[in-house]
Each structure stands twice: as C-alpha cells, then as structure tokens.
C-alpha cells in the first residue's frame, strides 16, 4: 500500500447498481465523493462476458419488466434495445406432465405463493417456522409442493429449510410485478447499462481499489484501500450484508449492527447460456421454459436475441447449485446437456457453445442474486442495518423497499441511501454555518 491519502465528502464502497445510483445522486446534489470498487469492472452481480463464439452475453443479472420503473427508465434514457423473452408455446415440466396437468400444477404452486404472502409475517403461529416446515403443513399435492419448492430454491437460491417463513413473506411482498419478471432483456447487455452510469462519474470512480479497513468516529471516516486511503465525512457501504460483514471496522461496530450483518447468507447460483443453430424447440410448439420438480432450483427459458441467435438460459439455484459447483466444468456441461436432451429431445445435443458462470462463493458478492436472512429470530436485522451507525451508512438491493434482489431494488436502495447522506451533509453544513 502507498501513503496516498485523499479527502472527500462521502466515500461509497461498491460499484454495483446500488453504489452507482447513489453516486449519481450525490453528483447531482453537488456533493464530492469517491466510489471504490474492488473488481476491475462495475455492476456487481451484473456482468457480461464474451462466449467462445465471440458474442457478448449477460453472465449475471439480466432481466427486467415494465413493472420495474427505475431500471426501465434508465434503459430508455441510455438508448438500450429491449428484447422480448419468447414465451409462446407449451411449458415443460420434468418429470413429464401432460400440458393440462402442468398448467394446473403451475397455477396451484402460485396459489401456495399467494397463500404464503397472505399470512401476516408477525403471526405468532408461524414464529420459528422455515419455509420448508410450513410447506409440509400444507394440504397440496406432492407435485404442487415440489413445484413451489423448486420456485423458492430457484429464485432465492437457498434451501427452503434455511429460510425463515416470515422473512420470505416480507421479501416476496416487495416483489410486486404483475407481468412476467423475465419479460425483457437488453440486447446490449445489462452490464452495458452499468457501464453507461459509470461513464458519468469520471475519475471519482476507482476500479481495482478494495476497501480493507474502515476507521470511524465523530470526526468522520478513514477508509484504507489497496491503493492508499480516503478520508471523508461519511461512508456509504453499498455491499450485500454478508459481504459488508467481512470488512474490518475500527472501532468495532455496535453489537446490534454487527449481529444484524451476520444473520445473512449468500445463496448459490450457476447461470449458463446454451447456444444453438436454431430455436428448434419453437418448431415443436414449445416456449423453451422447463422446470424440474425432481431437481429443485433448475429452470430453463428461451434466451434468443433473434432468429440468428438461438439460445436457452439455464439457471441452477440453491442446494443443486452447491452440488453441481463441485462437478468441474466438463462434468457440469455434460450434466446440463443431458438434462436439456431429456427435456427437448436429441436436438438439444447440437450445442454450438455453452458458457457457464458459477457465482457460488463469489469473492466480492457472495454467490447469488441476493443474500437472505437465515436466523428465524432476526426480525430487526434490516431495520438495524438501515439505521447504520453514522457516519457509517449501509445500502444494498437486499434492503430495498421494492424488488429486493433485483437491479430495480438496487437502484431504489442506492437513491434512498444517497438521499439520507445528502440530508446529513446539508444538516452538518447548516449547523456549522449557524455555529460560526
């Protein structure tokens, strides 16, 4: 580390969509800031890579829908092209069900979700229950319960027996889209939108500069980094809770705040784009969507950009991702291809390219779309983290009042956190002015 010390008003740690959104709000308010990012890119859990065909593809967060107003507005403002996800045709379930039974099972699993969300998270009758324990008490068919469990472990990426029921209810109530959440993706990739936002920040953004230690007190903060140090009035830690918990703080965080950060766990997800010469499933009247009831957390949808870019996207979440994480690249590709052949037939063997991004245990973002609370007693964890310990403030998609775990939620969380920082800054300026 060198001895360079920089001074600014606010330091933001983490340049995912939360940190980027907060930074842009501070810029608009005329407040000086530095945005630190450990990676060599912005975006956090959003990422783009080139596959073996030379195509730029989303390897992280990708989808959006019209019910997500903030990300939709940003995509429009930055001239992005919406690609509508292909959903026409039959939905496949595995093991196989007739189309009529598959549709009934899907709607019945959604009915379980609605029943869950109609439960008061403060109801004493569910205190201490995990999602799995509650599901066992329901009087639905085995197929329906399996479909619901696959939904939970695929979307939230943790085993259903780890997630407190009250937490999932509270979390899911904030996911308010009425249209299909995989409605659109961006032809230019979601990562390109993050890069566009970063481009407005100039040299206030510092890539490859990880925060290693945060010293804090009534006079402000000093953030030690891999490139030096930054001193500021306040720091906004725009990281997932489980990642923020790994930072070194001096003095140590207040016990309640430290404990609130440690009750979260990152899930596991592996995302794959499988390229084909043509969308052969459409010729058979299939939508490209497949859900495995016998492998909870495994889901496939059409990811074709156009007729010249035929693809399916494979999502592996939760315990299944943990198991397949241990397979190694070759075995993972063989496993996935075999499952696609089971679902779509021999044509699924004709793979042009299979690109896999294993987010499990990712160094900087934990491993899935979102961290989840795994302590059934941690009812105040979110409120405690949001309160922070000024001059320390925390924000992340997980803590958003809308769409936690999504890009939409990250944008909202960043703007809210920036608003608090701006108010604190302006209050301090006013206090100093009146004192003089």
Could you explain how this protein is built, in words?
- By secondary structure, the protein is α/β, with parallel strands linked by helices.
- The chain has 14 helices and 23 strands.
- It has helices at residues 17-29, 69-77, 99-117, 131-137, 142-155, 165-173, 190-199, 241-244, 255-262, 280-283, 319-325, 329-344, 381-387, 407-435; strands at 5-7, 10-13, 33-36, 48-50, 56-58, 63-64, 82-84, 90-94, 184-186, 205-206, 211-217, 220-225, 228-232, 234-237, 248-250, 264-266, 269-276, 286-292, 298-302, 310-317, 353-358, 371-373, 392-394.
- It has a six-stranded mixed beta sheet with strand order 8-18-19-20-17-21, sandwiched between helices. Strands 1-13-12-11-15 form a five-stranded mixed beta sheet, with no helix packed on it. Strands 10-3-2-14-23 form a five-stranded parallel beta sheet.
- Strand 12 and strand 13 (228-232) form a beta hairpin.
- Helix 3 (99-117) crosses helix 5 and helix 9 (255-262) crosses helix 13.
- The longest helix has 29 residues, at 407-435.
- The protein is globular and about 75 Å long.
- The model has no long low-confidence stretch (mean pLDDT 95).
Task: Based on the model shown, name its key terms.
single chain; 436 residues; alpha/beta; six-stranded mixed sheet; five-stranded mixed sheet; 23% strand
Summed over residues and divided by their number, the pLDDT gives a mean of 95
- Determine the oligomeric state from the structure: single chain
Question: Strand order of the main beta sheet, please?
Answer: 8-18-19-20-17-21
Number of strands: 23
Q: Tally the helices: what do you get? A: 14
Roughly what percent helix?
A: 25-40%
Give the strand content.
Answer: 15-25%
The rounded distance between the terminal residues' Cα atoms is 39 Å
Give the structural class.
Answer: alpha/beta
Major β-sheet annotation = 6 strands, mixed
Judging from the principal axes of the Cα atoms, what is the shape? globular
**Radius of gyration in whole Å, from Cα?**
22 Å
- Poorly predicted runs: none
């Amino acid at each position: 580390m060198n001895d360079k010390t920089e001074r600014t008003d606010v330091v933001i740690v983490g340049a995912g969509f939360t940190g980027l959104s907060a930074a842009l709000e501070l810029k608009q308010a005329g407040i000086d800031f530095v945005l630190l990012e450990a990676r060599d890119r912005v975006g956090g859990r959003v990422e783009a890579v080139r596959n073996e065909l030379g195509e730029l593809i989303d390897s992280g967060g990708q989808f959006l829908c019209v019910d997500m107003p903030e990300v939709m507005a940003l995509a429009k403002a930055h001239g992005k092209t919406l690609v509508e996800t292909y959903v026409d045709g039959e939905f496949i379930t595995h093991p196989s069900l007739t189309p009529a039974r598959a549709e009934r099972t899907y709607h019945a699993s959604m009915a379980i979700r609605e029943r869950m969300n109609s439960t008061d998270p403060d109801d004493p009758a569910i205190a201490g229950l995990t999602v799995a324990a509650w599901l066992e008490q329901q009087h639905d068919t085995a197929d329906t319960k399996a479909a619901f469990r696959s939904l939970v472990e695929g979307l939230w990426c943790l085993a259903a027996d780890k997630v407190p029921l009250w937490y999932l209810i509270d979390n899911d109530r904030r996911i308010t889209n009425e249209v299909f959440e995989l409605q659109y993706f961006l032809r230019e990739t979601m990562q390109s939108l993050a890069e566009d936002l970063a481009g407005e920040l100039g040299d206030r953004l510092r890539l490859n500069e990880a925060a290693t230690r945060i010293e804090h007190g009534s006079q402000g903060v000093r953030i030690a980094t891999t490139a030096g140090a930054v001193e500021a009035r306040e720091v906004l830690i725009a990281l997932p809770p489980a990642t923020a918990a790994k930072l070194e703080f001096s003095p140590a965080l207040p016990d309640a705040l430290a404990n609130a950060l440690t009750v979260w766990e990152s899930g596991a997800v592996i995302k794959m784009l499988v390229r084909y010469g043509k969308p052969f499933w459409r010729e058979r009247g299939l939508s490209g969507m497949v859900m495995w009831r016998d492998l909870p957390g495994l889901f496939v949808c059409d990811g074709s950009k156009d007729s010249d870019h035929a693809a399916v996207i494979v999502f592996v979440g939760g315990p299944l991702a943990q198991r397949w994480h241990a397979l190694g690249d070759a075995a993972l590709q063989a496993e996935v291809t075999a499952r696609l052949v089971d679902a779509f037939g021999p044509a699924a063997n004709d793979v042009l390219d299979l690109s896999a991004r294993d987010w499990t245990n990712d160094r900087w973002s934990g491993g899935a779309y979102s961290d989840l609370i795994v302590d059934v007693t941690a009812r105040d964890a979110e409120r405690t983290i949001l309160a922070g310990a000024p001059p320390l403030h925390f924000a992340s998609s997980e803590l958003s009042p809308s769409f936690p775990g999504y890009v939409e939620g990250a944008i909202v969380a960043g703007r809210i956190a920036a608003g608090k920082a701006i108010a604190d800054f302006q209050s301090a300026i006013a206090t100093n002015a009146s004192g003089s």
